[in-house]
Amino acid sequence: MPSLLSDRCSCPGPPHVDLTEAYIAQHQASSQPPPESLRDCERSLLSNLKEHGWSHVTVRLSDLPQGSPLVVSSADDAMKDAKFQWKNPKESILRLFDDSALIPNATYRTSESGAPGESSVEPKKSWESRRCTSYNNNNQNDEQSEASPLDSVTNALHSIICTVNWLLHLPPNLLIAQRQDTPGTPTRHQYGCFCNKHQDGCNSHGPCNLDLLRVFHYDKVEPPKNQNDAIMGSSPHTDWGSFTVVWQDTVGGLQTYCRTCQAWRDVEASFDDNLLRFVIHVGDATSLAMNCGRELLGDGEHPSSPFFPSPKHRVLSPVTETRVSLVYFVYPSPGQSLESLASGVASWLETDQGKRGGAHAKTPSHGHIPYEHYYLLHDQSESNRNRLPKDVYLEICKRSMEQVFAEKWTQVQRS
Ligand SMILES: O=C(O)CCC(=O)C(=O)O
Ligand SMILES: [Fe+2]
């Protein structure tokens, strides 16, 4: 039975994970494995992502050393114009949507919906900015591509996913695009785009990463007469990439679908000016890589409900005031295909480092992979809606993820 809007999931939610110590440790010594003292933190994050596919994570701002990307974003020079402050994020974000706001290297979007044929347009606007600004900048001869004031937000959110990848002993530079440090690289670029046109020819060999920040402004709408007529600020979907980091204001509205209760649950939204709260979602690419790897390698063992599921979620339009959010989409390292990710993950999990993380532990039950859960595999184009998700998987699994994502973007309406 499909759930009604008014049905609510009653399962206990995944526990909050305090990432502060791990964040500090990773930023101090990312070449070392996580220390024993972080074992509990690692276990609870692993179990949230493995079972539910999402987790709340928190970071205590006042405990972070100066210079870490989350602190830099409050003081960074490049942010002076936009005055982005984690202590007052909503105000900073609303300012980006002032009539006069013009953000270099960012795309302003005014309308979108889940698919081209969909009659209702989601009432929201957004700024979209790539982590790689030189990729974003069409003028490839321009040595001084202008910094976007969103760069330090992007770097800050990227630094969180670097901690997650490290803490869970996931393979380096596979599910997330990382680059080795270049001596002398300024700290503020440490987690940002490492593209250096002279050194690694990002522009001639394609982008150094595909990651994308979206800053959303969800318009306030009239309260629906009936709960089941609620307007969607973002229609139900799974995210297509590796991971997503979400920051939402206290208005709330983000909901996750619980496949056990077949009902939606509100993702808690609260604010404390010293405690940054984020939600991490597992994306389709990670989930497919984790679950298809073993099948593709022919060992025949795979769980009936995927571990590391990519959670279905949606956003209800706010009825009291504008809702804002920062949504940072992390994509696999460029050049990977779904198949190479799957075999990359499978081989990594056999290494000593991979085994240490516990992500390899298999679920005892065996069954089929629910391809239909993955929106990446839904053919949302107007022309060809009846391709089965498994057929879509087989069709795209050898293609580069850049191509796959580019095609997906043409399937959903946004302008
Ligand atoms: O705005 C949010 O909280 C989430 C939006 C979202 O899920 C998305 O854009 O993929
Ligand atoms: Fe999403």
TrEMBL record:
A GO molecular function annotation here is: metal ion binding
Q: Which Gene3D superfamilies match?
A: B-lactam Antibiotic, Isopenicillin N Synthase, Chain (2.60.120.330)
* Comp. bias intervals (Basic and acidic residues): 121-131
Q: What is the lineage of its organism?
A: Eukaryota, Sar, Stramenopiles, Ochrophyta, Bacillariophyta
From the Swiss-Prot or TrEMBL record, give the protein name: Oxidoreductase, 2OG-Fe(II) oxygenase family protein
Biased-composition ranges, Polar residues, are 132-142
**Chain segments carrying region Disordered:** 108-150
Q: Which family does it belong to?
A: Belongs to the iron/ascorbate-dependent oxidoreductase family.
Task: Describe the location of the Fe2OG dioxygenase domain by residue ranges.
Answer: 209-332
Q: Per UniProt, which keywords does this protein have?
A: Iron, Metal-binding, Oxidoreductase
**InterPro entries assigned to the protein according to its UniProt record, in alphabetical order:** IPNS-like_FE2OG_OXY, IPNS-like_sf, Iron_ascorbate_oxido_reductase, Oxoglu/Fe-dep_dioxygenase_dom
